[in-house]
Target: ATP phosphoribosyltransferase
Amino acid sequence: METRIKIALTKGRVEEQTLPIFTQAGIDITAVINKKRKLIFDLPNDPYTIILAKGPDVSTYLSKGAIDIGIVGSDILTEQQSQEYELLDLGIGQCQFVLASTKDFDPQAVKRKVIGTKYPNITQAYFSKRGEDVEVVKLEGSVELAPLIGMADAIVDITETGTTLKENHLKVYDYLQTVSTRVVVNKMALKQHRELIFDFIDRLAAQTKNNKGVTLK
Ligand SMILES: Nc1ncnc2c1ncn2[C@@H]1O[C@H](COP(=O)(O)OP(=O)(O)OP(=O)(O)O)[C@@H](O)[C@H]1O
Ligand SMILES: O=P(O)(O)OC[C@H]1O[C@H](OP(=O)(O)OP(=O)(O)O)[C@H](O)[C@@H]1O
Model:
């Protein structure tokens, strides 16, 4: 039976920006582009199976060894404290983590701040580093609502163009870290399918701006 590597691709923004890179790399992903509700695709001309999943699940599948390669944002890898090998930064899905709130927010005035976020671990780590004890409230989306409806003093979220913050009259109070899309490999899979995996990484790396993969020791 033909050996295939299982590549989980994060649905949504990451998928939209990654598929053109696949095409440029000569990988036929017509079936993925024309998908309806299908989630798994055995590509016709390459030994790759593409699996479409939500970002946090891509990271979970990777850590459980259910897939060989994950294409996922560094926001999720950091949040989930992923231990897998990051082989390539695709240079897409670029955004930044910020601390934001309403314009009248005074960081010194609130004793124990309530912070709304989709990223509780990153938020806790940020405030711990500053020696500040905060209450972190986990939200699932539209995080910008939290300070507007009086549910949180501030938020930790990602921003790209700044449009969402601006349209909701929120201001950036600090920059935490930058985010981009990474290609991550399960350690066991790398032992089993080293050649196939490095060939795949090289094909993508040749199309990315910085044009280099990460060399393993
Ligand atoms: N505004 C943004 N600009 C650039 N990249 C972003 C932005 N928001 C998220 N990302 C990156 O894209 C990944 C997936 O984001 P996307 O918005 O497609 O999914 P999501 O946040 O889970 O939304 P949904 O729940 O609507 O699917 C994030 O993990 C992050 O790495
Ligand atoms: O700076 P901008 O370009 O406006 O992008 C920032 C927005 O994008 C993300 O939300 P997303 O669209 O993923 O929706 P969500 O709120 O449901 O997570 C993020 O959480 C911000 O809300």
Q: What stands out?
A: The chain has nine helices and eleven strands.
